[in-house]
Amino acid sequence: MNSTLKTLKGFTLIEAMIGVLITAISASAIMMGVSSVNQSLKKVRVKEKAYEALRDYTDFLKARIMAEGGSTIGSPSQNGDEVILFENDQGEPVYIATVNYHPIRKLSDQNSLGEVYSLDTYIVWDLNENVKDTIEFNTAQIRLQL
Q1: 4-39 confidence digits (pLDDT tens)
Q2: Cα gap 121→61, rounded to integer Å
Q3: DSSP H helical segments within the chain, as ranges?
Q4: Is the pTM for the entire model greater than 0.85?
Q5: Where are the alpha helices (H) located in 69-140, listed in sequence order?
């Protein structure tokens, strides 16, 4: 009888439990990596939306400078304009940003063929309760005098 027990091959209970433990640790590490990648992708998507919103806002102000001149636009508002970057499935805003601009400065002198204005726009949004992110555009707009 002892000879038949020694010829049987298989895993002991300890070996099986160690295998399950190693598999569980590996699976949890993979899940944490996937979660980290999802959070990073979400931040990138929000930043991309913020970039698009700021580009559109800057283009709008540049068109106003071309049409009216920089001195007629006036001073920026104290709080800026709110822009919704992302909404949840119920249509409620998740990420809200504020776009604004610094006072427009005329860079050209009286002898130039056109007017050159400095236009600095920015957008600010909350990443979480304690962290804000910002994108800023520093551009110049030329208004030709024909």
Answers
A1: 555 667 778 898 899 999 999 999 999 998 888 888
A2: 9
A3: 2-7, 13-68
A4: no
A5: none
